[in-house]
# Entry
Amino acid sequence: MSARLWAGIVTLFPDLVTGSAAAGVLGRAVEQGIIDLDVFNPRDFARDRHRTVDDRPYGGGPGMVMQVEPLQAALQAAKDAATRRGLDVPVIYLSPQGRRLNQQIVHDLSRRPGLILLCGRYEGVDERLLLAEVDEQLSIGDYVLTGGELPALVVLDTVSRHLPGTLGNSASALEESHLDGLLDYPHYTRPENCAAGSVPEVLISGDHSAIQRWRLRESLKRTWIHRPDLLSSRSLTETERLLLAELFAEELKPAAG
Ligand code: SAM
# Structure
């Protein structure tokens, strides 16, 4: 079977990426050949005997900046690997300045045959390299990490969940937070009763339409409480509108004074 996704990761810490990508669901996807992962270390493309990949910033200031040439050569090796596979793949730089990752972007990425993910370190990457080589910049949130490896793994992990064959039950990916603009409903498993409480009765009723309705209602309730912004940017079905009206009437009205 040819892989559903080829990922070329350009990183100064290849072991960090391959080690983390060997565990859990992602590890199984790599092992089963659903994801084909290659790492490219810019140090292997440095020209001096110290394998230098960074230097001080022009204009002064703190920290070091990743140099153009070793990165460009590592990216070229990644592009050549993609070309050998007949793949047209985007170069994505993980950066706090990029477009913020969300489920829609993940879904779109999962439809690509491959990705090249460029991980920065230090103060970042020489701007000329970004302008010449990068198609898109993605951020995993409004905070700054020490490197792009964890963000690259976040992208890879979440994209892997959308690839056929990665999750045991493909319905799992269809019923999760954010996919349809709502947060996920609560989950319960055995035992039915324990010191922490009991399982809601509807879930053991065997009535599938009642269960489905309860889950939708809980999704709406959680979204309304924790992420009302998601509700205001989404159109509601007639059933969802009725359930929300019911929730307002029953549960979300102010406590009687
Ligand atoms: N000076 C850079 C700036 O303010 O934009 C931050 C550099 S950061 C210390 C080093 C590297 O970590 C970046 O080049 C980028 O690859 C990665 N990184 C840090 N925060 C990130 C985030 N929120 N999302 C994606 N990548 C991030």
Notes: The CA atoms of residues 179 and 252 lie 25 Å apart. The chain is about 40% helix and 15% strand. The chain has a mean pLDDT of 94.
